[in-house]
Predict the structure.
Amino acid sequence: MRAMHGVRAFRLLGVFAAFAALASVANADTSSERPGSILIFPKVVTTGTRDTVIQITNTGNMVNEVTCFYVDGESCVITDFFLTLTRQQPIHWRVSTGRPVNPLDGFGTDGAGLDPGLIPGLGAGFAGGLVCLETDDGAPVAQNKLKGEAGLQDLSASPTANDSKYNAIALSANAAPDDDDNLELDDAEYSRCATTHRLDVMTEVADGDPILGEDSTVTTNVTVLPCDLDFRRANTPEVTISQFAWNE
């Protein structure tokens, strides 16, 4: 693990899985619409022709310190970094290039504004997830003020290029978290990870997509990230998924 000075390695203790399917996430215990104390981005990809843009916003009126962990889906290598967001501050970056600290960024440029901290670039060839949580001097806190979005961009310049976007899954802190390295997703410390997800899909469209018209196609991609993640030991458990389909 590449650890920056002062960044603690936490463990999320949850039994089930965070879920992303294009731009839709819905379940009873988590939210993709309301802010929370833990943000989960289940699908983060960088290749020669694809990149991911992450945006995180501090919706509160107080400074919010944020500790983040990239999780490589194949090697389980962890890359961590630390941010400090002022009140109501949004921040964005490309996963491939990250975001340096440069106070001389010109007005209107991609890096303009108040830099929250050094965000490492992962280059091409990364496929995994990102988890960010509210902290104070390295310890977890409960402000419930973080909101996030991820944009998956197709850089191929192909006529069939397709971009998509989804909201990060936000887990609320239900009480002041213990000052330890275990983040309990048990409805006591933090919201419980969802046990089921429902996704409405179009598996076959005779006349193409109703918006794009004839000769278009519909593709649904589902990504699952386990909620039980150990950032210190870089361990992710195996998850068994049961799928049930209903044809309306």
